Amino acid sequence: MSSCLDNVRETLGGLDDKGIAQTLRDIENLSRQTQSVMLEVVAEIDARGIAVREGFSTTQRLLAGMLQLSAAEARMRVEHAAMVGARRTITGQTLPPRLPATAAALAAGEIGSGQLRVITETIAALPASVPPLARERAEADLAGYARDFDPRRLRIIAQRLVANLDPDGPTPREDSSPVTPVRGELWLRDRRDGGLGLEGWLDAEHGSMVRALIEQLAGRPTTTDGDSDTRTVP
Question: Has this prediction a pTM greater than 0.70?
Answer without folding.
Answer: no
